[in-house]
Description:
The protein is α+β, with helices and mostly antiparallel strands. The protein has helices spanning 24-34, 38-41, 43-46, 58-72, 197-207, 211-214, 216-221, 231-255; strands at 14-21, 84-90, 99-111, 118-128, 134-145, 187-194, 268-274, 283-295, 302-312, 318-329.
Amino acid sequence: MPSIFFEDFIPDSSAPYGSMTVSREELIGFARQFDPQPMHTDAEAAKHSFVGQLIASGWGTAALNMRMMCDDFVLESASMGGPGVDELKWLKPVLPGDTLTGVRTVLAAKPSSSKPDRGIVKLKTELTNQRGERVLEQVNVVMMGRRGTEPVMSPAASRAGRPLVSPPPLTAARPTPFLEDLVTGEPNVLGSFTFDEPSVLRFGRAYDPQPFHTDPEAARASFFGGLIASGWHTAAGWMRTMIDFRRRCEAMARDNGLPCAELGPSPGFRDLRWLLPVYAGDTITYTTAIASARPSASRPGWGLATQHNTGVNQYGDTVFEFTGAVLWQRRPGA
Length: 334
């Protein structure tokens, strides 16, 4: 039974949570599966990358942050999941051997106006390494059950008889354009990712061990009505399709002797929304479009591009979206 409820989240209160040392094996293992860029997977190749050393994937750091919160308080709470993340900043690289500690601050807490069994809590979480450097800052919303109430069970929407929708064709590989040549609003279909039950369980047990991600029987009895992927798993699936798309573009440019822009790390994202549950067995097709691009004032030869990203399931439902930022190479001589 939970011991932490909505009423225990007092606005303006802060508390430490967790401590975790990031091993090289953990860092590389996550990246190989979801974010296989050289700066995350190969120490020697990372020396020649934008950052010059092996660093953790930002999505891997976010997943570890989720695990630390689960171990500290989420698994003891009346958690009903989270609809999204308002903003996340990757402030400093996480290196192999770094020890991360967290602090959570309650920014706001209000009862739900439509569902009396729960309240909405806005949390700010910060991770700091052993050098006293903040490496991650996140503001997100979680739903918490209220003390003394019974959860209102909302049966999962029936999918029986719903027609499947064919995903749009993948965008053809082409050299990644330089910052000055980016076209805003043009959609690129990155690829699809299937969340089969074994992978949902594996990710949930490693990073987000809430029962509706880790126990099929408990998940069927939950208000989700079935086993669902962690939201961070959904996000990691987007990252994997993005990297695979970039690789196709780089190979096409290399094979044809054409110039191809490099991309650097991301400083963060905003407005991430998990709009609908991703159930075990779902296939999500991810699309991205450039929203804006501007030169960097502090990094000659580079700029910052923002991208609006979405994920759509096999029934045509949009289940995931966010706006991310990434350092983008400018045209030589620009």
